[in-house]
């Protein structure tokens, strides 16, 4: 059965990005993601990688992401690929969502990813950030190269926020497809 919105099939490339994100969190590959598969797993994975303040912020960010983005208005306790495709489609069309996403990604950059606080991510910082979500360190350099848009070997806050937003709403092939790690689906 093809995944589609109420009126039309989802664009294939966009759906592949959503499948990649879904596969990243479906650790047991049963086609269902529970809150524990994302929030609890990522927070547990972050212990020892983040300091206490970063851990508190990361926990809040993950809780917010689950409640708004994954569980959605329906307050689901588990989601399938169909659920998350519908949720992403719904949330990215919601009024005010881009501002909310700017805030979430900006906080993620400022308080979690940018370890030295200089306003830029090095490959090492981006590797550490994606590691919180279980992305293997050997997969990160290609993602980093795809996301940085200048020649300084750094990802700026602006680039980070922009590519994070583009991941979900751009329906054609773009470097943003690698924001959350390798494109695997």
Number of strands: 4
Mean residue pLDDT: 88
Give helix and strand order, one letter per element, not per position. Answer: HEHHEHHEHHEH
Please tell me the CATH architecture by its name. Answer: Orthogonal Bundle
CATH class: Mainly Alpha
Determine the CATH topology.
Recoverin, domain 1
- Sheet with most strands: strand arrangement: 1-2
Query: If helices are DSSP runs of H or I spanning 4 or more residues, what is the number of helices?
Result: 8
Largest sheet: 2 strands, antiparallel
Quaternary organisation of the protein chains: single chain
Radius of gyration: 16 Å
Q: Which percent range fits the helix content?
A: 55-70%
CATH homologous superfamily annotation: EF-hand
Domains, number: 1
Shape: globular
Distance between the termini: 17 Å
Structural class: mainly alpha
Instruction: Please state roughly what percent of the residues sit in beta strands, choosing from under 5%, 5-15%, 15-25%, 25-35%, 35-45% or over 45%.
Output: under 5%
Pfam family, one: EF-hand_8
Protein name: Sarcoplasmic calcium-binding protein-like
InterPro entries: EF-hand-dom_pair (IPR011992), EF_Hand_1_Ca_BS (IPR018247), EF_hand_dom (IPR002048)
Keywords: Calcium
């Amino acid at each position: 059965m093809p995944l589609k919105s109420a009126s039309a099939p989802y664009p294939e490339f966009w759906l592949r990005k959503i499948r990649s994100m879904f596969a990243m969190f479906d650790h047991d590959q049963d086609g269902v993601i529970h809150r524990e598969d994302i929030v609890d797993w990522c927070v547990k994975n972050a212990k020892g990688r983040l300091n206490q303040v970063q851990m508190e912020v990361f926990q809040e960010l993950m809780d917010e992401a689950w409640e708004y983005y994954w569980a959605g208005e329906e307050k689901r306790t588990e989601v399938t690929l169909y659920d998350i495709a519908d949720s992403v489609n719904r949330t990215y069309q919601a009024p005010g969502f881009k501002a909310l996403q700017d805030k979430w990604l900006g906080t993620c950059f400022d308080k979690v990813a940018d370890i030295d606080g200089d306003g830029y991510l090095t490959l090492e910082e981006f590797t550490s950030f994606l590691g919180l979500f279980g992305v293997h360190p050997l997969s990160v350099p290609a993602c980093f190269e795809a996301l940085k848009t200048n020649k300084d070997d750094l990802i700026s806050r602006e680039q980070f926020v922009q590519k994070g937003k583009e991941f979900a709403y751009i329906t054609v092939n773009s470097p943003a497809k690698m924001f959350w790690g390798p494109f695997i689906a």
